[in-house]
Each structure stands twice: as structure tokens, then as C-alpha cells.
Design goal:
Rossmann fold; alpha/beta; 7 strands; 7-stranded mixed sheet; 35% helix
């Protein structure tokens, strides 16, 4: 008996394309997840945005989103503050939080940045700010700042913070699944030693800001979702107006 050779059937072209697409998406997700640890979003923890002129009485510490200052709107807001005469010491979150931090380590990142800003700029007061992931960290650690640093804080500014906080920066968002490591709303509502500004997108469903209504914080809703319709000019103008409302201690 003579056997006929088996003919291997080709996979349909659409299945091959789907398989390739799945592999590409998996590769991109892996790169995004490990981008901070691989230093793809920077290798230096700090980035400065100097203001024109001499020493300013007020400076800002700004914790970026999980993509750093070159992506998203953290860079635009920092440049806007500097152009307005407020020097900014930026913390590059994908570098500072490239690996998982404990809560105590997250606190140390912020307190170290405040000390650096005071020394580097010669300012007497600090506006403590953060965007997205950076806002999550600021919202979490600000209520626990020691008394000597509280006296130096002119205002606390949060842009699109989430209700749930995780202590590792992950542009893919995969690290932000599971049980949150902090939920800062209750502690932030009780914070009364500095004005709090919370800006969010009105289409967001998981924003911290609405939870602060009635607490004395400035809660400001802007059009769009988490990315605020990618309008850095509107966001920067909103931040500056809110700082002006917060009082003369902000220098705006």
C-alpha cells in the first residue's frame, strides 16, 4: 500500500495576521511595563525648569506622570510655572519609581525633593505638585509630612489623581491592577495646614478629586477624561489661576 504524502494546510492569512498582531501587542506591553526599569524614559531622578531672574520666594516640586516630563502634560505645566517666575524641581517618576517602593520610601522621595528645591532655588516656600501617577504619590504622602516641612508648603496641587495608589510607575498600567497600596482621600480631606488644589477630567470615573468636595479643597473639573483632551495650555492656565486663588503665599 502506497501512502500519499500529507499536505500541510496553510493557516488562513487572517489568522497569521491576528497572531502577529497579538505578539506585537504583547511585546509592546512588555516594553511599556519595563520601560522605567530599562531607563527608556530617562535615567536621572531630577529635572529642573529654571525661572528667569534671580532667587524666587516660591519654588515648585513637581512629580511627573509615569511617562516623565517629555510625554503627557507634566512638562508643559512645569514650563508654564517657570515662565511665570516659579522655578520647578521636577521628580522624574519613571526613574524615582522604576521599581516598587514602600510607602516610607515614597515619603522619602518627596521630602528629599522638597529639601533639594529649597537648597537649589533659595526659595522660602514650596508648591508641592504632581500629575497623574505623581499626583497619586503627592496625595498619599503630603498628609504625613513632618511639621518643619509643612511650614514650608505654600500649596498642594494635584492634577488628575486617582482614587487608588500604587508605588511603582508603569506606563502600561498593568501594575495598577489588583489591591491598591493606598487610598488617600480620607487623609487628604482632613489636611488643613495648606490649600489643596485638585484638577480632574469630568469624564473620569476613578478620580480622587470629587471625593474632596466639601473639604475646603479647590476641586476643578475640566473637559475630557484623564488626558484632559490633551490641552496643556488650558491645564497650565487653570493651574496658575488656582494658585492665585490659593493666596499670595504661592507667588502667583
Amino acid at each position: 500500500m502506497i501512502r500519499k504524502p500529507m499536505i500541510r494546510q496553510k493557516r488562513p492569512a487572517w489568522r497569521r495576521r491576528v497572531g502577529i498582531a497579538v505578539l506585537l501587542l504583547a511585546a509592546l506591553a512588555a516594553i511599556a511595563t519595563h520601560a522605567p526599569a530599562l531607563h527608556l524614559l530617562g535615567s536621572r531622578t531630577y529635572r529642573t525648569f529654571p525661572a528667569a531672574g534671580g532667587k524666587a520666594p516660591v519654588a515648585a516640586v513637581f512629580l511627573s506622570g509615569d511617562m516623565g516630563f517629555d510625554f503627557g502634560m507634566s512638562g508643559a505645566v512645569s514650563k508654564g510655572l517657570a515662565a511665570h517666575g516659579i522655578p520647578v524641581v521636577g521628580v522624574v517618576s519613571p526613574v524615582a519609581f522604576a521599581h516598587h517602593r514602600t510607602r516610607a520610601q515614597a515619603q522619602a522621595v518627596v521630602t528629599d525633593a522638597i529639601g533639594r528645591a529649597l537648597r537649589q532655588t533659595g526659595a522660602q516656600r514650596i508648591i508641592l505638585m504632581g500629575g497623574s501617577f505623581g499626583a497619586d504619590i503627592v496625595a498619599t504622602v503630603a498628609p504625613d509630612l513632618p511639621a518643619d516641612l509643612r511650614a514650608r508648603i505654600a500649596a498642594i496641587g494635584l492634577t488628575v489623581p486617582g482614587r487608588d495608589v500604587y508605588f511603582r510607575a508603569d506606563p502600561s498600567g498593568l501594575a495598577y491592577l489588583g489591591t491598591p497600596e493606598a487610598r488617600p482621600a480620607a487623609a487628604l480631606r482632613r489636611l488643613g495646614w495648606a490649600p489643596v488644589i485638585c484638577i480632574y477630567g469630568v469624564e473620569e470615573s476613578d478620580s480622587l478629586c470629587p471625593l474632596l468636595k466639601g473639604s475646603g479643597a479647590q476641586v476643578i473639573g475640566l473637559p475630557g477624561g484623564h488626558y484632559l483632551r490633551r490641552d496643556p495650555a488650558r491645564l497650565t492656565a487653570t493651574v496658575l489661576r488656582a494658585l492665585h486663588v490659593a493666596g499670595p503665599a504661592t507667588g502667583v
